[in-house]
Amino acid sequence: MLDFPRAWIEPDLDVNYQHFFVDRRNELPATAYQPPTTSKLVEDSSAFYIQANFDNDQWLPIRGNLGIRAVKTNLSSSGLVKSVIGIDQIDETVVFADAKTSTVERSYWDVLPSFNIAIDVSEDTIARFAVSKTMSRPRVEDLSPATLDVNPSILLIKEGNPQLDPFRAVQYDANLEWYYNETSVASIGLFYKDVKSFIYTAVVQEPLIVDGTAVQDPLTGKTMNLQHDRPINGAGGKVWGYELNLQHSFEALPQPFSNFGTALNYTFVDTSAEFTNDITGDVFGIPGLSEDNVNTTFYYEAESWSARISYNYRSEFLSKVSGIGSNPIFTKAYGQFDLTTSYNISEDIVMRLEAVNLTGEVSQKYAISPELLRDYAQTGRRYQLSISAAF
């Protein structure tokens, strides 16, 4: 197997598969043909709520509502678990027990109160305030109990976690909106969230146990540890920031300029939450959180057709607390241009053209330092033409 190639500059996948997995199949170790990874998730939710509205247009122009929502979630998650019973780091081979399906069933309740109020400060200015308790369920792919992948060279197992609890938070929002003409608005918003638990991916070292006994490494005589890469519920934390919005229509200008408009948004986010790499001890902020987020849109709206060009940007953020080799993975700052346009062929038929990533921007990830590139992804420009009809 010494002549088995391990990297290609730009592989032809069909040719490689035919040559190495069909023509030379008998030369491959048995571990090249492992049982497929399968998962099944059934998630049922039921909810009821009660809400009361209020308003007053006499001495103080206010309106709003308060209510409470109760939600029950029933979860049944199944996946094919391939228990490891041995690893040979020299040959980079893994020995599995017979794959077995594991099923985990759970149910939990969430009670979510909320309060919203709006005050008409003047004829064109509105102040809003809201407080609520919120819940967001984990991603479907994170809830599988299945063994998703094994990397024998670094003794790492990737798996899901059906015991994950949802994100839960108490959040406060305050906004001031100025409608300076009938179709335009400028606003500023402040937000504060007390998040009880964040979900993030961690790599945790655990002893390899087979039949109740710790497996010894034949090279060192010490207990062999496995790195388990799985999503977990981490500590909570505070998240706060502000948001600036401007939506402006040029309808006061003469034709054709009156059909143009723009929408601008900037959001700043900061947090007190910290996550620790269990292997290295390093402390980081929230995975997936960018401090600076910008969204801009310039549009044209006419009776028969419309067009929008947008630019979306987010600053650098932590992708993973513990990645390959237990190192943190960061995603570099990224921005892209998108175009959407539609034309009404008739009252019932609309043709749309969408162009994503017009300038062909690339996404880059690195480990520890920007010089240590981890992933370089270029999806290129993507176009979609569609026609829809209503009957």
Indicate the structural class. mainly beta
Beta strand %:
over 45%
Query: What is the count of structural domains?
Result: 1
Number of strands: 27
Strand order of the largest sheet: 1-2-5-6-9-10-15-16-19-20-23-24-27
Query: What overall geometry do the principal axes of the alpha carbons give?
Result: globular
Q: What's the alpha carbon Rg, rounded to whole Å?
A: 27 Å
The helix content is: under 10%
Distance between the termini: 62 Å
Number of helices: 1
Largest sheet: 13 strands, antiparallel
Q: What's the helix-strand series?
A: HEEEEEEEEEEEEEEEEEEEEEEEEEEE
Give start-end ranges of low-pLDDT stretches: none
Q: Can you walk me through this structure?
A:
It is built from one helix and 27 strands. The chain is an all-beta fold. It has one domain. A hairpin with a 5-residue loop joins strand 1 (39-56) and strand 2. The N and C termini lie far apart (62 Å). The model has no long low-confidence stretch (mean pLDDT 85).
